[in-house]
Design brief:
The structure holds 2 protein chains of 2 kinds. By secondary structure, chain A is mainly β. In chain A, 0% of the residues lie in helices and 50% in strands. The radius of gyration of chain B is 14 Å and the shape is globular. The relative contact order of chain B is 0.33. The model of chain B has no long low-confidence stretch (mean pLDDT 90). The chains are: A mainly beta, B mainly beta.
Chain lengths: 111, 116
């Protein structure tokens, strides 16, 4: 079946450090891939997406590249800020209506 | 514009009582979803409404859970005879459409349910 696996958190970084949050997936067909972010006390919101192999999604300094050969969609940011502290969810969509979400990775950024 | 709203934001209830959780989706969104987020777990899909079609209830964990959507807008998730394992954050999301397209889901802030 379809599934998403994310690295376990929490991830703790100092401000301006480089961020990588790993995400791998299992899916039939050609899924679209997403990263959602959940700030404290808020609902999830879409951060970026990629709809086909080798696409790069980007937003707010975050990037993720759809790698079909490694079935991965790792989230990266070159220099994190305290305001990036949140929970990040990797997700995939293969058609129909259902989006499959990973377990989420909590990020703490220290000043 | 207004986003997805949910009420109450927090609910503490005794084991065995019934609870109702409310979701107001974004106006014009035809698709509505309920998810459950347990501590340390991902989002667990519960139920999906699309327009006037019969809802997909395949994710509901037991017959104690039910949901309805009135007039194609507001939705209520009802949990009967609550159990401690029902404690979680219940998230509602809506989107412009559901099937056949790449779409973004807009989430509400959630209702944190604690069953004592």
């Amino acid at each position: 079946g379809n599934s998403v696996t994310q690295m376990e958190g929490p991830v703790t970084l100092s401000e301006e450090a480089f961020l990588t949050i790993n995400c791998t997936y299992t899916a039939t067909g050609y899924p679209s891939l997403f990263w959602y972010v959940q700030y404290p006390g808020e609902g999830l919101q879409l951060l970026l997406k990629a709809t086909k192999a080798d696409d790069k999604g980007s937003n707010k300094g975050f990037e993720a590249t759809y790698r079909k050969e490694t079935t991965s969609f790792h989230l990266e940011k070159g220099s994190v800020q305290v305001s990036d502290s949140a929970v990040y969810f990797c997700a995939l969509y293969t058609g129909g209506f259902k989006t499959i979400f990973g377990a989420g990775t909590r990020l703490f950024v220290k000043a | 514009g207004a986003g997805v709203s949910q009420s109450p934001s927090n609910k503490v209830t005794e084991k065995g009582k019934d609870v109702e959780l409310r979701c107001d989706p974004i106006s014009g969104h035809t698709a509505l979803y309920w998810y459950r987020q347990s501590l340390g777990q991902g989002l667990e899909f519960l139920i999906y409404f699309q327009g006037n079609s019969a809802p997909d209830k395949s994710g509901l964990p037991s017959d104690r859970f039910s949901a309805e959507r009135t007039g194609g807008s507001v939705s209520t998730l009802t949990i009967q005879r609550t159990q401690q394992e029902d404690s979680a954050v219940y998230l509602c999301a809506s989107s412009v459409t559901g099937t056949g397209s790449i779409y973004e889901q807009y989430f509400g802030p959630g209702t944190r349910l604690t069953v004592t």
